[in-house]
C-alpha cells in the first residue's frame, strides 16, 4: 500500500470488473461460448481470439471492446456478441460462476457499518453490473449501481459526474484498476485509489492514482490513517 495524504471521504465509488469482481472467473468460459455461437450462426468465421485480449479490454465501453477483440468482424457480429455476452454472463452468474476478490464482501460490510456511502460506477451493461451485485450478495450494500449501459455515458468521467450530482456527494474516493478509473476520479476532483492486485491492466494504467492498494482490506487502513 502506498499513499499520499488523503481527505476523508463521505462516499466510496467502485469500479466493478477487476476491482470488486474477479472477472476472469466468469469470463473465460463465457468468451469461448460466445465465439462458438457466432461461428454456428455464420457471423464469425475465424478462430476464437485469445481470451487475454478480452480481459485486457475490461474497463472500456463494449463497442470499443469488440473492435479490439475482433477487428475483422462485421457490425452484425459485434451486435450479436453484445447479446450473447450478456446472456451467457447472466447464465453463468445464476449457476454460481464468478468470484469476488478476496475480502471484498467483508470489507464492504465494514465500510457500510462505518456509515460510508458506497456506489458502483462501471462501463459495463446495466443488467451485468446489477447481476454481479445481486448474485454475489452485495447489492444491498450500495446506495447506487451506475453503469454506462444504463446512463448511456460516453466516458466514466461523465458517469461519475452524474452519480455525484444525483446524490449530492461532495467528497469521495474513486476506487478502480484502470486508467479510466483514475481519470474518472481526477476529472471530478476526487481522490483515486488504484487496485494493484488486478492483473487485467498494466501497472502504468494506475499512474496518477493518489494511493495504491494490493489487498482490498487496505481501504480500511487508508481510512484509518
TrEMBL record:
InterPro entries registered for this protein in UniProt: HAD-like_hydrolase_sf, HAD-like_sf, HAD_2, HAD_sf, PGP-like_dom2
GO molecular function: phosphoglycolate phosphatase activity
GO cellular component: cytosol
GO BP annotation list: DNA repair
UniProt keyword annotations, A-Z: Hydrolase
Superkingdom of the source species: Bacteria
Pfam families linked: HAD_2 (PF13419)
PANTHER family (alphabetical): PHOSPHOGLYCOLATE PHOSPHATASE (PTHR43434)
Protein name per UniProt: Phosphoglycolate phosphatase-like HAD superfamily hydrolase
Taxonomic path: Bacteria, Bacillati, Bacillota, Bacilli, Bacillales
Amino acid at each position: 500500500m502506498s499513499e499520499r495524504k488523503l481527505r476523508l471521504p463521505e462516499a466510496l465509488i467502485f469500479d466493478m470488473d477487476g476491482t470488486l469482481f474477479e472477472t476472469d472467473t466468469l469470463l473465460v468460459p463465457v468468451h469461448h461460448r460466445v465465439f462458438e455461437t457466432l461461428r454456428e450462426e455464420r457471423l464469425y468465421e475465424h478462430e476464437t481470439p485469445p481470451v487475454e485480449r478480452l480481459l485486457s479490454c475490461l474497463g472500456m465501453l463494449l463497442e470499443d471492446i469488440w473492435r479490439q477483440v475482433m477487428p475483422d468482424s462485421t457490425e452484425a457480429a459485434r451486435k450479436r456478441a453484445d447479446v450473447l455476452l450478456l446472456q451467457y454472463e447472466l447464465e453463468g452468474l445464476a449457476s454460481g460462476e464468478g468470484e469476488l476478490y478476496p475480502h471484498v464482501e467483508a470489507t464492504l460490510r465494514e465500510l457500510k457499518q462505518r456509515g460510508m456511502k458506497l456506489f458502483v460506477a462501471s462501463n459495463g451493461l446495466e443488467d451485468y453490473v446489477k447481476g454481479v451485485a445481486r448474485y454475489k450478495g452485495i447489492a444491498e450494500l450500495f446506495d447506487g449501481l451506475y453503469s454506462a449501459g444504463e446512463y448511456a455515458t460516453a466516458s466514466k468521467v461523465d458517469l461519475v459526474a452524474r452519480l455525484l450530482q444525483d446524490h449530492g456527494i461532495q467528497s469521495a474516493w474513486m476506487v478502480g484498476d484502470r486508467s479510466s478509473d483514475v481519470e474518472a476520479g481526477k476529472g471530478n476532483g476526487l481522490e483515486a485509489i488504484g487496485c494493484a492486485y488486478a492483473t487485467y491492466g498494466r501497472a502504468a494504467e494506475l499512474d496518477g492514482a493518489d494511493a495504491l492498494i494490493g489487498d482490498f482490506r487496505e481501504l480500511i487502513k487508508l481510512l484509518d490513517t
